[in-house]
Amino acid sequence: MSTPDRAADGPLPARAVLRLAAPALPVLAAEPLYVLVDTAVVGRLGAVPLAGLAVAGVLFAQVTNQLTFLSYGTTSRAARLHGAGRRSDAVTEGVQATWLALAVGLVVLAVGQLVAPPVARALGDGGAVADGAVSWLRIALFGAPMVLVTLAGNGWMRGVQDTVRPMRYVLAGNGLSALACPFLVHGWGAWDGWGLEGSAVANVLAQTVVAALFLAALFRERAAAPAEAPVRLRPKPAVIRAQLGLGRDLVLRSLAFQACFLSATAVAARFGAASVAAHQIVLQLWVFQSLVLDAVAIAAQALVGAALGGGGAERARAVARQVTRYGLVLGSGFAAVFAALFIVLPKLFTADPVVLATVPVAWWFFVAMQPVAGVVFALDGVLLGAGDAAFLRTSTLLAAAAGFLPLIWASLLFDWGLAGIWTGLTAFMLIRLIAVTLRARSGHWAIPGVVRA
């Protein structure tokens, strides 16, 4: 079992961040990569099933997008307990998050079955595409509790500074599903397969395997815990209420992100196909690089939470300064790479000359934001590790309301095109940069001690 790094002085070595960030990156990338495999497999069925998968996939993705507090909130709480040398209590935090995940997952399953048809019809064409989306969702929703158990499992394991086992679990489940998906969709020999529904079954299979591995890890921790510090399996309402309070702030923060990026795509579509295509190319590259920066943020969460849990407020501030420098270096490196690949990279996504001519409008905003994003993501991780979710909620909502949304709708009103959209996204990031930098410098977040309840 790993132990928290309690070094009282000296710089945080890059290997300490890399030890946690490197295994976390495949976990973050596994789902987007599997979606690509799923899309390729279903795409061979034709345009209608692929469109149905696109509609259903967007809807199902909201489960993970809006309920990530089960990972991030659990990490910060478990990390403090781990830093205080209370591993059993840190794992018990994971048990409570798992109970919460199962409860919320069952609600998502029940409500999802009811609302899937009208929502799919609203997003689809009301015909064959909507029907395909509903049939996929009705099966895939049975995996919702498993997805949330996986989020909780990632959370407590990151909190005890173990990012290797989650990587193995997630890759095992997604690898199995990637192998099963072509067989279940297209069949074998005389069997024609289940078509689009086979994709949903493959998803549920993967989610069940991964959730089972995380549950087994909890039982192993319980068996290995010392008699004087057992891992408690019973639900603790007070702890679950505290996790829900943290979750509320993180969900509101996530909604601010969703409002920004959905609005950006909606407005880009008003400027024509070339604009929305160019926007999509640059936005997907943004999503890709954010996975790497998010891995660094996860490492910052675990290290800062452990430092504060062990009473080391000054150590936590030193970790924050060092991680911020790493984020700046990484973001600057991304800026240099994407600037150098400007001529080559967009052509991998499209050969349309009109789209390629439009890409540069967004591209240089994207490049310029890389160092900003490196610092913002790092400090997000620091503040999440400290449990400062209320500040992150408020600052993100303000950045969306004061920076992004006015500019995005002004760009539509005054016909500013992609330049206006990406100016809004840049303003959103700059306001967040100012907010998290001032908060980090204030030190108000660095409150030592373990979690309450």
TrEMBL record:
Which InterPro entries does this entry report, sorted A to Z?
Answer: DinF-like, MATE_fam, MdtK-like
The record gives the membrane topology as: Multi-pass membrane protein
Query: Which domain of life does the protein's organism represent?
Result: Bacteria
Q: What is this protein called?
A: MATE family efflux transporter
Source organism of the structure: Pseudonocardia acidicola
- Subcellular location field: Cell membrane
Sorted UniProt keywords: Cell membrane, Membrane, Transmembrane, Transmembrane helix, Transport
- The record lists the membrane-crossing segments as 41-61, 97-116, 136-157, 169-188, 200-219, 250-273, 285-308, 328-349, 361-383, 390-410, 416-435
Annotated family? Belongs to the multi antimicrobial extrusion (MATE) (TC 2.A.66.1) family.
